[in-house]
Amino acid sequence: MKIAIAQLNFHIGNFDSNVEKIVAAIHNAKRANAELIVFSELAVCGYPPRDFLEFDDFIDRCYHSIDIIAKECDTMAAIVGSPSYNTKGKGKHLFNSAFFIENKKVKKIVHKSLLPNYDVFDEYRYFEPNLTFECIQYKNKKIALTICEDLWNTSNNPLYTTNPMEELSKHHPDVVINIAASPFYYHQSDARKEILKNNALQYHLPIIYVNQIGAQTELLFDGGSMIIDRKGRIEEFDYFKEDFRMVEFKEDITIEKVKISNVQPIQKIHDALVMGIRDYFQKLGFQKAILGLSGGLDSAVTLALAVEALGSENVLALLMPSHFSSEHSVTDAKEIAETLHVSYEIISIENSFSSLEDTLKPYFKDLPFTIAEENMQARIRAIILMAFCNKFGYILLNTSNKSEAAVGYGTLYGDMCGGLSVIGDVYKTQVYELADFINKDQIIIPKNTIEKPPSAELKPDQKDSDSLPPYPILDKILYEYIEHCFGPDEIIQLGYDEQLVSIILKMVNINEYKRKQSPPILRISPKAFGMGRRLPIVGNYLS
Amino acid sequence: MKIAIAQLNFHIGNFDSNVEKIVAAIHNAKRANAELIVFSELAVCGYPPRDFLEFDDFIDRCYHSIDIIAKECDTMAAIVGSPSYNTKGKGKHLFNSAFFIENKKVKKIVHKSLLPNYDVFDEYRYFEPNLTFECIQYKNKKIALTICEDLWNTSNNPLYTTNPMEELSKHHPDVVINIAASPFYYHQSDARKEILKNNALQYHLPIIYVNQIGAQTELLFDGGSMIIDRKGRIEEFDYFKEDFRMVEFKEDITIEKVKISNVQPIQKIHDALVMGIRDYFQKLGFQKAILGLSGGLDSAVTLALAVEALGSENVLALLMPSHFSSEHSVTDAKEIAETLHVSYEIISIENSFSSLEDTLKPYFKDLPFTIAEENMQARIRAIILMAFCNKFGYILLNTSNKSEAAVGYGTLYGDMCGGLSVIGDVYKTQVYELADFINKDQIIIPKNTIEKPPSAELKPDQKDSDSLPPYPILDKILYEYIEHCFGPDEIIQLGYDEQLVSIILKMVNINEYKRKQSPPILRISPKAFGMGRRLPIVGNYLS
To answer: Mind telling me how many Å the CA of A514 is from chain B's nearest CA?
Structure first.
């Protein structure tokens, strides 16, 4: 039996486009004499559909899509992800399902058993877990059909009380098929391979694993579908690209030539961010990006990523100096814009700033220059950028990094503006790594931009290091707190200064109100700010 | 047996303050010769603690709090809500628990069985559900101890597959105690009484129900704890206030004098919003609010609520006219500010706007005046308001209503700014009702403010009705879509114009990106924008 595997990029709620892609893949597979084709989790509606699942109209459109797809499945069967109604009269109203279609009819609907409900996942918000297990019989093969998380309950302290593979293996399947929607973070593809390989070895079964690609706002899906034989040998699909492959399943599935990518995490982060920008614009129907180019590292790296994603002709950079801007800020910014062939404009904020100062003079009188005036500059820049967006149809790219977002070192409604935060999940120390990666073949980001001390340039001779510890230390403490959920005692035990730890954790917590209003942040880490990290604003823990 | 019931306002993560309140209530109860005192759900840490639950350090502090509380429980037992570790080696790492403390020791820990995971609730994100049921024996009484949702699995199509009261009733309890954290919306107190009464009648048992009060950012808890006897007669506690009462439990609990409040929904909304503002400031340690007062209805109502919450001496209003502002805007705004004894300043945005126009002239040239210039005005006002915040320590109150937030009729980084959105869950038609309620004893909001046609005044002779259908129609369609999750066909079948429905639903969906960056919105409806409504930004459903 030939099995086709379709790794595709779906658009949430865009049923026409999703069905069209699925049908086109079915036609390809038929031409290649496949007898079965497999699509990823919730393929018909895109993953994650989130609260669209609460609309019966949305679910009805999923069923309607399945009907259209079924008509194409004459000579060939298909496995397609879709929500389905729970008709048992108890429990949540939906299942997260895999529809097995054969002879133009839905022959079987298999439901997901393990519903991830942590980090960015909310599946128990919508779906009832499956508790009954049987295999699908097709062409003399028994298929253990599972959905994503169903294969992940493997630790010594498992998150779930049921184990689908334990149950399914009692029915002696010939193969495991897993349809997934597994989002990227920099170590996720390794974790996936490890989990799937362990399943193959433990149950002595080949596995066909199908993931989706593409960006769904902040969530980035990297693909990396794979075929694993019962000896744990892996053939890996492309990352960050649609892919379509066939596997021959005679007596068994055997991987003759192991194909595993060996890509460094920083390149994965780079590729993920480029896809994240590109797909955000494509799915929203926009072409052109704008950003504020300060001459600093963050906006330089964001610009380079935007150019790669959208093309230099689709990116405009605004250089908006004030009298606090150093000379090299403008020259450094010009240099990278010119290197990347990006149009730029130099727009001074001096007059607007003076005018606002005059307006406020009767109230601020002779009070000293404070954060109020610093923020005013950042907010004037935001007005100018947003005016270009509103006038010409740009989307503003936000250039804040994760370290800043964490400690609130940024101006709400100022440099925190934007339709999309490109590097908001990238710590400052990783931004340096990204810059080096971008410069690996030729200097794109000027040496001076990388080497000069980071500064917001909102008051005379300001440096980030005036108010923050050095980034290599800051980032490590943030990582322990944010990614590891370590408390102060645990972090201090790692050798960090008690007072410093206390100050930093407090900064993180009291700035939750700013992050609440931040643009969506492309997620590249196991714990990004946004939907995967949910904290109360009026909380008073460590603050 | 005398049972004390403590309806308190807890602060998330503020263990010192929560423990202090709990201990004070224990002392009160002891003085009144109580033998048992009952506190609400997750009392030690406040509800909802959200992802603070992912920090072991946070959970350890909960246990430590329980230790301190237990020391006070010498002559009297206590039921205290707290998370507890799941030590079974399977499933989520925590339970949502009620600690039964007697003789200074934790005698029993009862876990919540039904974990709400819909709307604003994420409990399955953290907690493993309980599946075993037994009663607590205390002073010759058998107590069926349950936690909030445990009593709510009652419809014909129940959301959960287990029913705790069915299980517990097999053990023949004498009383049901339910510790809760049930947030407010305008019909929730009625729903609660109905559910609890039905439980009392069905199982023929008295129920002691303890809720918390107070605002936890967007979630408003209204209290309304109650005692229900087995005939379904109810004694209701205060709403929106801390309360402490005793109930006598001899052979049975009997309500001699039914006490049920009969308050109109619009008053509940008013009281909830006032508490929401007050508690937000109190928990963050701020005193002073600022807002932009346009002369329109929304800012007038917000101002009146702010004054009630914080006192007129703690509120500053800025009137920021442009040359598009009508004469009556300023006079209406002044009138309400003066009526409420609120300080105000009139700050023209003319010069700042001209200055920005000049700055942009080389790029915008002679292009027509568009949304770009409209938004610039709103954004200049935001800069001024935020400059006051940064200079003097105000929190900016956002004045947008739910109808605007729904269709995106507002300027991101302009009038959408603020630390807290006061009426962002109040439809425009409800804002009129609120104004009438505020004016019930004396005219506070000027007649002209209520009667003039709503306008953003960002271009000549602009009216909301230029780009939006009349609010009474708009709000009804929005309600069917947002609160009922009806699709277009269902709404059209209710008698609304097909094209209008299509345009409005599209406006709602394409403006998700704006709402992503909105301030937290005080929740008074069953479906507020914010944590209870989660939609993908790049989705393409009905758009």
So the answer is: 9
**Catalytic residue status for A334:** no
| β A213-216/A207-210 pair status | unpaired
Please list the residue range(s) of chain B that carry CATH number 3.60.110.10: 2-262
For residue B157, the chain A residues in CB contact (below 8 A) are: 89-90, 93
Of A159, A345, A531, the CB nearest to B92: A159
Can you spell out the DSSP letters for B92-105? -SEEEEEEEEETTE
Fold type of domain A2-262? Nitrilase/N-carbamoyl-D-aminoacid amidohydrolase (3.60.110)
- The residue of chain B with its CA nearest to that of A158 is B90
How many beta-carbon contacts under 8 Å exist across A and B? 278
Per annotation, catalytic residue among A21, A108, A112, A514? A112
Residue of B nearest to A160 (CA): B91
Beta-carbon count within 10 A of B367 CB: 12
Q: What residues does A409 pair with on adjacent strands?
A: none
Catalytic residue flag (residue A241): no
Q: Distance between CA atoms of B99 and B338, rounded to whole angstroms?
A: 52
ipTM value, please give it. 0.96
Nearest CB neighbour to A370, from listed B11, B391, B540: B391
Radius of gyration of chain A (CA): 26
Q: Do residues B455 and B463 lie in contact, with contact meaning Cβ atoms separated by under 8 Å?
A: yes
Of A62, A73, A135, A148, the active-site residue reads A148
Q: Look-up: residue for tokens 């508690």?
A: B279
Half-sphere CA count of A537, side-chain side, radius 13 A:
23
- Give me the helices (H) in B73-212, please: 164-169, 188-203
Residue limits of CATH 3.40.50.620 in chain A: 268-464+512-516
Name the nearest CA neighbour of B534 among B482, B492, B473: B482
Instruction: Tell me the helix, strand and coil percentages in chain B, rounded to 5.
Output: 40, 20, 40
Q: Give the residue on B whose Cα is nearest the Cα of A89.
A: B157
Residues B66 and B20 sit within 8 Å (Cβ to Cβ): no
Residues of B in contact with A17 (CB under 8 A): 540
* The domain made up of B268-464+512-516 is a member of CATH 3.40.50.620: yes
Q: Going by C-beta distance under 8 Å and a sequence separation of 6 or more, which residues neighbour residue B372? A: A387, A388, A390, A391, B364
The secondary structure of A14-50 as a DSSP string is: -HHHHHHHHHHHHHHHHHTT-SEEE--TTTTT-S--G
For residue A283, the chain B residue with the least C-alpha distance is B538
Picking from B282, B538, B540, B542 by the largest number of A CB atoms within 10 A of its own CB, the best residue to mutate is B538
Instruction: Print pLDDT tens along chain B (543 aa).
Output: 999 999 999 999 999 999 999 999 999 999 999 999 999 999 999 999 999 999 999 999 999 999 999 999 999 999 999 999 999 999 999 999 999 999 999 999 999 999 999 999 999 999 999 999 999 999 999 999 999 999 998 877 899 999 999 999 999 999 999 999 999 999 999 999 999 999 999 999 999 999 999 999 999 999 999 999 999 999 999 999 999 999 999 999 999 888 888 899 999 999 999 999 999 999 999 999 999 999 999 999 999 999 999 999 999 999 999 988 888 889 999 999 999 999 999 999 999 999 999 999 999 999 999 999 999 999 999 999 999 999 999 999 999 999 999 999 999 999 999 999 999 999 999 999 999 999 999 999 999 999 999 998 898 888 988 889 999 999 999 999 999 999 999 999 999 999 999 999 999 999 999 999 999 999 999 999 999 999 999 999 998
Amino acid at A472: P
Please judge whether B372 and A391 are an interchain contact, meaning their C-beta atoms are less than 8 angstroms apart.
Answer: yes
Q: Would the CB atoms of B520 and A537 count as touching at under 8 Å?
A: yes
Q: What does the H/E/C string look like for A474-489?
A: HHHHHHHHHCCCCCHH
